[in-house]
Amino acid sequence: MARLVLLLLGADYLRQRWRGLFITGCVWLLAGIVIFIDALDGALYFPIEFFAYLFLIEGLATLIIATTGVGGQRVLRFTKGTFAVVAAALILAGHHHGHFVLSMIFGALFLADGLLQCASAYVVAFPRWRQTFAAGVAEILLAIFFFQPYPTNYVGTLPYCLGLFLMLAGAKLIMLARRVKGLAATPAPDAGPAGAIEPERLVSMTGEPIGDGPRTPPPSASIGSAASRISDTGPAIQTWFEGPPSDDERVLTVHVWTPTGSSKAPIVRHRVIDRYIAAVDVNGVISTGHAALETAEGIYISLYPNADIDRSPDQFGRTLRATPDNNVPGQYQPSYAIESVAWCPATVQVRIRNYNAAALARFWSEYRQDATYNLTYRNCSSSVSAALEAAVEGVFGRLYGERAGWRALVRLLATPELWVASQIRKRAITMAWTPGLTLDYARAMSMLADPRPFGWWTMWQAAIGRMRALRRQWRKQDAAAPASGSDVEADSQAIDITQTNVEDK
C-alpha cells in the first residue's frame, strides 16, 4: 500500500511532508509494540469492546457500499465487510468460545495465505522469490501462534492483530519517509524524452496542454458531473468525478481479453480459475487471455510472443516458471485496431481520464527496447500493469494542485479502492499478473486516479433524489385532492338532502 500511496501522490508531495510521515510511523510502531506486549500477560488494558464496535461499524459500512464495486472489487469488499462483522460479533459475545473461534479464523487466514505464497513463489520462481517464500513462512508461524492457546487462552487475539498491523504500518511509513526524503524531484510533466511524444501532444485531463498551473474542470463537464472546491486565491480545482469519462474526453484505455472471452471453443467452466488464471475449452486447449494499454497520444502497449507457446496441460506447468529458459522472443502489436481485427475485439475496457502522459512516455521509451516475453514474469498483463503504474504517477496529488495538504493523503487512505488495489497487486507480484487480475487492478486504479464520491455520499444522493421524487408525487396528489374532495362533499350534501326529504315525508 505504501508504494501505491507514493505512486499516486507523487514524490514531490510526500517529500514536503516526510517529517510528518516519519513521526506518524514512529508513533504507530511504538503503539503497536505496546498493544502487543500488553496482550501477552493476560491482563488487558486494551479497550477491546470499543474496537469491536469500530469493527462492526466498518464492516456494516463496507457491506452497504459493496454493491458499488465491480468484479473482484465487489468480492473483496463483501469479504472484508463480512469478516469485520463476524469478528466484531465474536468479540462482543464476550465468552471463551467467541475468542476461540476468532483465533481459529485469523489462524486459518494466515495459514492459507502463507501456504499460497510459499507454493506460488516456489513454483513460479520469480526474482526475489526466496524473500517471498520467507514471508510466507512467517505467516505460517503467525498462524501457529493464533492456533495455540498460550499465553492468553485466545483472549488477546484482537490486540495481537491490531498490534501487528500498527507495527507493520508504522515500519512501512518510516521506510516511506526515509525513501521520499532522498528522492530527486519529479521531472516536469512536459519534459518527456526526445522523440517519444511531441510536447504539444501531451494534454491533461482537461484537454489543455500539461503545465504547472492550476487545473480547471473541462469545458465539456456539466455541473453535476464533477465536484470542485472553490478557493479565494484561485480558480476551481476538480477533486472528484461522477461516473466514467465521456466519449469526447482524452483517456487512457486498458483493453482486456478475458480467458473465457478469447477462447475459440466452448469452455469448461471453473468460476475462479477461468476468471483469474486460464480457461480450458472442451478440446483441452488452455486460453490465458490478453491485455493491452492505449492512450490518446498514440501509445499502444501490447506484448505478445512471436510464436505461440505450447499451452497443453502436460507442458503448462513447466512454462509457469519465471526462469530465463522460458524467455521467448516477443513483439509489440502496432495498434488496437490492427490487433482487434486480426484476433477479436477486447472483452472489457477500462478508461481513465486523469493520467500522466509524460511519465508514461518516459516509461514506454525505455520499456519497448526489450521485447522479451515470459509467460509469468514478463507477459502482456505485467507490461500493462507496469505501464498503468507509470501513467498514474502523481495524478492524485496534482488534482489538488499547489493547495494539496494532508487532506489529500487522508482522502486517498480513506478510499476503499486503495486497499483493494494493494491486495490485488500483492497477489499478482507473488504469483503472476494475469488478464483477470489486471482488469480488477485497472478498475481499482481508475477509481483512485479519477476519484469518485464515497459510497456513502453516492447512497445519500440517491436517497435524497428518491425523497424529492416522492415529494413531487405527493404534491401532484395533493393538487388533485381538492377537486376530488369537493365532489365527495357535494355527494354527501345530496345524500343529506335526500335523507331530510324522506324524513319529512
Report on this model:
With 505 residues, the protein is α+β, with helices and mostly antiparallel strands. It has 3 domains: 2-181, no CATH class; 224-453, no CATH class; 458-505. 56% of the residues lie in helices and 10% in strands. The chain contains 18 helices and 12 strands. It has helices at residues 2-9, 11-15, 18-38, 48-65, 72-93, 96-124, 129-147, 157-181, 273-276, 313-319, 336-342, 357-367, 380-391, 395-399, 406-413, 416-430, 435-449, 455-504; strands at 226-231, 234-241, 252-257, 267-268, 279-281, 286-287, 290-295, 300-301, 303-305, 328-332, 348-352, 372-373. It has a 4-stranded antiparallel β-sheet with strand order 8-7-3-11, covered by helices on one side. Strand 1 and strand 2 (234-241) form a beta hairpin. Helix 3 packs antiparallel against helix 8. The longest helix is centred in the C-terminal third of the chain and has 50 residues, at 455-504. Residues 188-236 have low confidence and may be disordered.
List keywords for this structure.
3 domains; four-stranded antiparallel sheet; globular; alpha+beta; about 500 residues; 18 helices; about 10% strand
